[in-house]
Batch of 2 targets.
Target 1
Amino acid sequence: MPSLWSKLRKNPFGIHAALRSAETPAKISVRGLDKSFEGKSVLKGIDLEIERGESMAIVGRSGEGKSVLVKCILGLLTPDKGDILIDGHSLASEEGEKLRSTIGIVFQGGALFDSMNVWQNVAFRLLQQGIGKREAKQRALQCLDSVELPARTAELDPSELSGGMRKRVAIARTMASDPDILFFDEPTSGLDPITTDLINDLIVNCTKSLGATAITITHDMSSVYKTADRAALLFNGRLVWQGSKRTMAGSKDAYVRQFVQGKAQGPMTRNSEERDEAKQSGEEQVEKKNTKQKDVVSETAAR
Ligand SMILES: Nc1ncnc2c1ncn2[C@@H]1O[C@H](COP(=O)(O)OP(=O)(O)OP(=O)(O)O)[C@@H](O)[C@H]1O
Ligand SMILES: [Mg+2]
C-alpha cells in the first residue's frame, strides 16, 4: 500500500483523498486523463478525486475543455489515455455500462427533446426502462414539484418554457432516474442573477435529497460559492489548482486570483493578441479611473 507521503507527493492537491483509507475508494477518480482532437491536445493528464457525497466545481475559461472532461467521464468521448473509476471500478471494465447508468447529467443548455412535452422529457429514461406510462407520469410530476414547477407545466412543450424553466425541467429529468452522481454543465449560463440563485439553491437541495455526489461545471463564481465544497481550475489542459471553495476568494495563487477577480490580465491570458487586448483594456481602465479622479477634483474645486 502506498504511504501517505508518497500519495501526497504524487498528488499534492489531494490531501484529504490521501488521508482517506485505501479500503474506501473515492466516488469518482480520474487518473492521467488525456484527450486531443486532430492533434490538438485539450486535456493533458487530468487527475481528480471526488469523495462520496462531495460537491465539486470545475471552473475555467471558455474552451478550456470542461465539457470534454465531463463527456469523457460520461463515456460520450473516448479518452486517449488514462482511466476513470467509480467506486474503485474502471468505466472501461465490463461493469462500465452499469456504473454509467448511476450518473445523471444536466447538459449545457438543457438539451430537452423538442418533440416531447415536459412530462415526457422528465420521464424519458423511465419510459425507456419500460415503466408504465401512468407511473412514469406520476414520478415526472413529483420531480417537477421538487424543482418548484407547477403541475400545469407538465403538458407544455419545451418551446413554451423560459430559460429558467428549461433548466428546472432538465434538473427534474435528471432527478427522475435517481442517480448517485449528478453532473451540471453550466447550469446557470444565460440566466438573470435571481434565477441563477434559485437554480443554485435547487442544485444544493436536489443533490442533498438524492444523497448524490455532484460535479458542477461553471464560469459562475456565485454557483461555486453556493453549491460546491471544493473547486478545481482547468487551464491549458491541466487542473492548475484544486482546493476548498472557502480558500478561493483569498487565494494568493495567480491563476485563481485572475479567475475569481475576472481580470483580463494574468497568467491565463494566452497569446500576444489576447495580451495586447488585456493590456489595452487595463490601460483604458486606468485612464477611466484617472479621468474620474480628475472630474472629482475639479467638481470639488468648483464647489
Ligand atoms: N467533438 C469535438 N471535436 C473536435 N474538437 C472538439 C470537440 N469537442 C470539443 N472540442 C474542442 O475542445 C476544446 C474544449 O471544448 P469544451 O467544449 O470542452 O470547452 P468548455 O471549457 O466546456 O467551454 P465553454 O465554457 O464555452 O462551455 C475546444 O477547443 C473545442 O473546440
Ligand atoms: Mg462547456
Target 2
Amino acid sequence: MTDSIKRRGFLKKAMIFLGLTAWSYKNIGSESFLFELDDLEDDFSRKKVSIDVEVYKFLLDNYKPNIEYMLNYTRDFYNGINVELNFRFVEKLNHSSLKSAEHLGLVILPEEENNGEGIALLENSLAVISYRNYSGKPAEKGDDYTSSVITHEIGHLFALIHSHRFRDDPVEDYSDGIPNIMSFRRKGKENSINDFQKKIVHSFLSKGKIYRQLEKIDFIFDSRYIGEIAMANNYHPVFQ
Ligand SMILES: [Zn+2]
C-alpha cells in the first residue's frame, strides 16, 4: 500500500467521522429522530374513530342512499386495516368538538363547490369533499370515484402522505396493479393500502410516534412536515 492511498484512507475515515458527528448533532438539535419512520410501534389493535358528517341539504334530500354507499365504502376500507369508523350525520358540525385521531368532521358539498375534489385539514380534523356525480353528468366514475376521494382525504386525517411524494419511501402508486388509496391513480373502488401505511395509521390513532410527530408541528400537515420526514429518513421528495 502506498503512502498516498494510506493518506486517502485516513482522510476518508476522518471525513466519515466528522460527517457522522455533524449528522448526529443536527439530529439531536432538531429532534429529527422523532421523525424517523423505521421504528414505529407494532400495535394493530382495533382503533375506533368517530366521524361527524355534514351534508349539503340538497344532496342529503336527494342522494342520501348514494352518500351512505360512499360512507360504507370508506368504512369497509378502513375496517380492512382494523380501524372502525363510526359515521353520524349532523345538521351542523361542531368544530370545537373535533379532535385529532379521535373525532373527525367530514363535509360533503355539491360538485360545483370544489370540482369533485377533496381537501383535508389535519389541524382542524376536517375533510371537505365535493360529490362528483349528482348532477347527472356522464358518470365516468360513478359514486365509486367519490368514495375513493372520501377514503383518500380520511387517509390524510390519519397522517398518510401521497404515495408519489417521496422517491424512496416504501409506498408506491400501485400494489400488484391496484392503485394506492393515497395516489392520484385512483379510478374507482379498487384501491390498496400497504403494511407501512397501516403502521402509520395505527401509530397515529394510538397516539404513538406519528401522533407525537404531528403534535410537534401543531398538526399542520405541510411542506415543513414533509421536510422533516425527508431529512430524518433520507427520502427524496418528488415535487409535481
Ligand atoms: Zn391528497
